[in-house]
Design goal:
Blueprint: E1 7-9, H1 14-21, H2 32-41, E2 43-47, E3 52-54, E4 62-68, E5 70-76, E6 82-89, E7 93-94, E8 108-111, E9 116-122, H3 123-131, H4 134-160, H5 163-178, E10 180-182, E11 185-189, H6 194-201, H7 205-217, E12 221-223, E13 227-230, H8 233-236
Antiparallel strand pairs: 1-2, 2-9, 3-8, 4-7, 4-9, 5-6, 5-8, 10-11, 11-13, 12-13
Helix pairs in contact: 1-2, 5-6, 6-7
């Protein structure tokens, strides 16, 4: 698999980095002085669309604060199949498992259809800030707990719900998070392939195609390669 190097640049000044960092809930316990200190040591990085930010087995040496673009987070099964855990966007943090003691990456992070820009902070630097701020430690623990809860909820759905229900819940959740109202309808621009949706919902591409076509025949959704229009959220649910 060909990897394009992450672009590292000093072009973003400290004040700009500071404004970005203020938007992250994980950093709420930090005061202005501590935030500026973090902005001074944070590196601005970027990757082109579809390129990997990190891969499994790479050293867990830092965390990334996503400031632009969307990121696909997942793993690969022993037989090479892709398992997508989450789709994250600006305001999210990735690589944070390093703060829980992870030595090597257990998952990959990949840019989706647009360039992704990030602020990178070394784990050792962030751990130093945690040692100086007990509220930050508590916030990090909460952040990691919520992440684990999301994974458990997804696994529960895969075990207890049939494929059709999982795909419909994916549509509803995505619309609730990323959708834009168009009259009484909800438009979702996603740029995910049907294989991506299958990997997210623990189904197959053929099943996703079948369910989407069935929902289209029922006039509940309309879709193309880059967007999904949900005609009635209540009826779809």
């Amino acid at each position: 698999m060909f990897l394009v190097p992450i672009q590292i640049s000093a072009r973003m000044n400290v004040d700009t980095k500071l404004q970005f960092l203020k938007e992250f809930s994980l950093l709420l316990p930090l005061d202005d002085i501590q935030l500026r200190k973090l902005a001074n040591i944070a590196e601005w990085r970027s990757v082109s669309r579809y390129q990997f930010i990190f891969m499994p087995d790479e050293p867990s040496n830092g965390i990334y604060f996503i400031t632009k673009g969307r990121v696909k987070l997942g793993t690969f099964s022993p037989d090479g199949r892709e398992v997508i855990k989450e789709i994250l966007q600006a305001g999210a943090v990735i690589g944070e498992l390093a703060l829980s003691g992870e030595i090597s990456r257990t998952e990959y992070a990949q840019a989706l259809h647009d360039e992704v820009e990030m602020l990178f902070v070394k784990v050792t630097d962030f751990q130093t800030m945690m040692q100086q701020n007990t509220r930050l430690v508590y916030t990090v623990m909460q952040y990691l707990a919520k992440r684990l809860q999301r994974v458990e909820e997804r696994l529960t759905r895969i075990v207890l719900q049939d494929a059709r229900k999982r795909i419909i819940e994916f549509l509803l959740e995505t619309a609730g998070r990323d959708g834009r109202k168009v009259g009484f309808e909800m438009l979702v621009k996603h740029h995910l392939t049907q294989q991506d949706i299958a990997n997210l919902t623990g189904t197959s591409r053929q099943t996703v195609t079948s369910v989407f076509n069935d929902l289209k025949r029922m006039n509940l959704i309309h879709f193309n390669r880059s967007s999904i229009l949900i005609r009635d959220m209540e009826k779809l649910a």
